[in-house]
Design goal:
The complex is a heterodimer of chains A (about 290) and B (about 160). Helix content of chain A is about 65%, strand content about 15%. Chain A has about 290 residues and is α/β, with parallel strands linked by helices. Chain A has one domain: ATP synthase, F1 complex, gamma subunit (Pyruvate Kinase, Chain: A, domain 1). In chain A, strand 1, helix 3 and strand 2 form a beta-alpha-beta unit. Chain A is elongated and about 115 Å long. Chain B is α+β, with helices and mostly antiparallel strands and about 160 residues long. In chain B, helix 2 runs antiparallel to helix 3. In chain B, about 35% of the residues lie in helices and about 35% in strands. In chain B, strands 1, 2, 3, 4, 5, 6, 7, 8 and 9 form a 9-stranded mixed β-sheet that branches. Classes of the chains: A alpha/beta (about 290), B alpha+beta (about 160). The interface between A and B is medium-sized, with 26 and 26 residues. Chain A: This is ATP synthase subunit gamma. Chain A: Keywords: ATP synthesis, CF(1), Hydrogen ion transport, Ion transport, Membrane, Mitochondrion, Mitochondrion inner membrane, Transport. Chain A: Belongs to the ATPase gamma chain family. Chain A: It is found in: Mitochondrion inner membrane.
Chain lengths: ~290, ~160
């Protein structure tokens, strides 16, 4: 009974001064930090197990992309300059957060590019996170959004479905660019722009004449459609690898910070406990001596 | 069809011979092949002797110093003769083959498997299934079935 009253007295005192937390407060705080640490630590482990698979997918996707782009390099393909350019930006990100600045940096890069193109841009957002971010500032530019990406390592089927939807609207765009987070190393990524070419641009490539193509088979058109799907696939794979590694780092930092907080709060908890015990002893002793 | 294919490959060959006389003999005489899939890399700039690909306009063989070409692939067998003389075969469902100036061949396909990976029975049942849907009143289903039939018929001659 007495002890109860004692702590209550301490608590009321702390409410007034605001710098002396009670034992119970510290205990709940400590417990919640410990739980958070457990969660972040698990997320870190999950991310690091996924990382190797994601990196492998990214590497093969890059080889695929290089094989796909070789022809544009040799044909010196460039976007067609038109009097009334219509731009389309495809922004590749994902649905899930808790991975550092990965979504905001790509949204920032997109906004910058939109400003550069005098706002004469349509945007396709792949992934919920980037859609909400762009919806805040550039809602008028957003024409199409996809979600449900980034849960697992991307497959070509995902990319084909997305590109099919985009292709339904992309025939009127003179300039198409893909934004994605390029995986640089385990600790860094870089928002990158990849240009895409439509059939017209491929036909007008300066060095295309050195290639033998079948005129009747609509090769440029099929090639541009195929490349759109390929580019989306490789961007998804690269973006996914950067996201997973960013998440691992973010969760690693969070766990470390939680560890620091746990040590600080444990010390504070023990100190406060001792102080409370001392106070109670003082109370008891003074009470006992007054009876003498 | 067969005649035109044969003719085409003959024509290609004569072109190849005429080009060969102009080529510098030493370094350019090898063909570098990149055969890449979205989820796997089968060949990455590896030297090979000859590659036969199923083009949309008929099968054709590619040797070193082939003229640059962009060709869409139809479902069929790619056969690769390696420098050691061994032949590797892959069935592809479609994609693109591009020969770059400088004897580099890049093939991008969505799927590629060795013929031994297919079961002839499964092909047969799926083909029967697809053929049923070819004349479906729903255009989307009919188009999907037509593509399935195209792939499976090509596969039927390959699967053992």
């Amino acid at each position: 009974m007495f002890t109860r009253l004692g702590t209550n007295a301490v608590r009321t005192a702390s409410r007034q001064t605001r710098n002396y937390a009670t034992l119970r407060d510290i205990e709940t705080r400590l417990k919640s930090i410990k739980n958070i640490e457990k969660i972040t630590n698990t997320m870190k482990i999950v991310a690091s197990t996924r990382l190797s698979k994601a990196e492998r997918a990214k590497n093969t996707a890059r080889v695929y992309d290089a094989a796909d782009r070789e022809v544009y390099k040799h044909a010196e393909t460039a976007a067609v300059e038109s009097e009334q350019p219509k731009n389309l930006l495809i922004v590749v990100s994902s649905d899930k957060g808790l991975c550092g600045s990965i979504h905001s940096s790509i949204a920032k890069a997109t906004r910058k590019r939109i400003a550069e193109l005098n706002n004469n841009v349509d945007v396709v957002a792949i992934g919920d996170k980037v859609r909400t971010q762009l919806n805040r500032t550039n809602a008028d530019n957003l024409v199409l959004a996809f979600n449900g990406v980034g849960k697992e390592t991307p497959t070509f089927t995902d990319a084909a479905l997305i590109s099919d939807e985009i292709y339904q609207l992309s025939d009127k765009y003179s300039n198409v660019e893909i934004f994605y987070n390029k995986f640089v190393s385990g600790v860094s990524f870089e928002p990158t722009i990849k240009p895409l070419f439509d059939a017209e641009a491929i036909e007008q490539s300066p060095a295309l004449s050195q290639y033998e193509t079948d005129q009747d088979a609509k090769v440029p058109e099929t090639l541009s459609e195929f490349s759109l799907a390929n580019a989306i696939y490789t961007s998804l794979a690269d973006g996914y690898a950067s996201e997973v590694s960013a998440r691992r780092n973010a969760m690693d930092n969070a766990s470390k910070n939680a560890g620091d907080m746990i040590t600080r709060y444990s010390i504070l908890y023990n100190r406060t406990r001792q102080a409370v015990i001392t106070n109670e002893l003082v109370d008891i002793i003074t009470g006992a001596s007054s009876l003498d | 069809m067969f005649r035109s294919t044969a003719f085409k490959s003959l024509a290609r060959q004569s072109q190849f011979i005429s080009r060969r006389t102009y080529a510098d003999a030493a370094s350019a005489d090898v063909l570098k092949l990149s055969l890449a899939l979205p989820h796997a890399t089968l060949f990455s700039s590896e030297q090979v002797t000859q590659v036969n690909v199923p083009g949309a306009n008929g099968d054709f063989g590619i040797l070193a110093n082939h003229v640059p070409i962009i060709e869409q692939l139809r479902p069929g067998l790619i056969s690769i003769t390696e420098t050691s003389g061994q032949t590797k075969e892959f069935f592809v469902s479609g994609g693109f083959a591009t020969v770059q100036p400088g004897s580099t061949l890049s093939i991008t396909a969505i799927e590629a498997f060795e013929p031994s990976a297919f079961s002839a029975e499964a092909v047969k049942t799926q083909l029967a299934e697809a053929q049923k849907n070819v004349n479906n009143s729903d255009e989307a289903i009919a188009a999907t079935a037509a593509i399935q039939v195209e792939v499976l018929e090509a596969l039927q001659s390959v699967a053992k």
